[in-house]
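Holo prediction — thymidine-5'-diphosphate.
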Amino acid sequence: MKGIKTSYICDCGYRSPKWLGKCPSCGEWNSFTEEIAEPLGGTVGGVKRVSAVSGISGEAIAYKDLELPDFMRSATGLGELDRVLGGGLVNSSVVLLSGEPGIGKSTLLMQISDILGQNRKVLYISGEESYGQLKLRAKRLGVKGDNLFILAETNINNILTQAEKIKPDILIVDSIQTVFNERIASAPGSITQVKECTLSFIEKAKGDGISVILVGHVNKEGSIAGPKVLEHMVDAVLYFEGEKQHTYRIIRAIKNRYGPTNEIGVFEMTDMGLSQVENPSEMLLSGRPKNMSGTCAVCTVEGTRPIIAEIQALVTKSVLASPRRTASGIDYNTMCLITAVLEKRLGLQFSSHDAFLNVIGGLRLDEPAVDLAVALALISSITDRAVPDDLIAIGELGLAGECRAVSGLEQRLKEAARLGFTRAIIPHRSYERLKGDFGIELIPIHSIFDAINVLKKIPNSEPNI
Ligand code: TYD
Ligand code: MG
């Protein structure tokens, strides 16, 4: 057709006029799919484009005439989710909820549909499950669904026609990878389809002032299949994380145009669906082994909330030329760096040992304040001496083995004291700035050497270094 150009696009967003086997940008094989570029005149798949930002096409406005927006938010009824969203679902916004298959996305959305449906109209599009399957799940979750409409459909034109008829306040699309536009040649789930359908939903949200939630499946590499292109198109991206073998689930905002991105929501998967965990520290510490080597508690701050986590290390003699290192919940490179610091500064022979690190409960710790606890867990395991159960370690480690200041120490100490910890090893620099009593003994240190000396004075914990 005249005016329509075909090009090929990789999952990373790289475009080429020809199909390529290997992407020159990201190096991925077999990742190019066909994309039909927009013809002049701004129509694609027969749909006329409007502005995806405001829903109208207009003229430039003088800055001083701009008005402060008043976002209307609807509470989802799940405080943990509202916190991540920044206070509830915003009208005219598009949220992408992504996670691995089976993690609980459909369950969560069915639960909030019921609550949101109490005073708003919800249209739930299911491209994966039949009406029967949906009803079965909803019944199990105790959904009343007075204002809930279900549509098992994958053709975007039919979806938009139904949405026009029902006029929902909230539109849920489960999942975006199943929806397709019949005017586009590529298969559902391909980058062109996913992008085009997302754009149509964004236009619908901005044009009609409704909130849209799109479900996106994550492929095994961890990116949203279809993939990164979606993240910059939508207003908020939420990741639903957790390990299937555990019941804990964490929702994290990695992008939010209407709120903070560092908050997390914690849930537990039960027979009755997802229930909120308002006290994650208690949950994460339950079942903590007593008096065992290789574990150390730390307090991390997620958004506005301090959470106590347990770091476990297992260090064993290696029979391999290059010993194994695995880290779950901690960045692999951080782990390698800390073992290198301990080897160099304390003379511990990590290079002849396999080392495994794990954060209990599927929590991911990526702030430097956990370095000291990681180091103590590793030292505890290699020397086979337990860190006392009532001790918590907070601090960043430098390459010279020095212990650096951390932010938000007050709230971390308060949370530790609340959960019954009685002593805390903390950076000296932060200690100098602390004011008041936190109900916990404070042990300020300058370096990892000081931390070892502290442990040496505690009976049964003295590492043999
Ligand atoms: P689901 O919401 O279908 O996952 P997703 O949409 O992310 O693919 O959740 C599937 C899992 O959740 C499934 O293994 C069963 C479990 N589950 C419960 O444990 N309790 C429940 O009440 C429900 C509805 C599901
Ligand atoms: Mg699902």
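READOUT: The radius of gyration is 26 Å.
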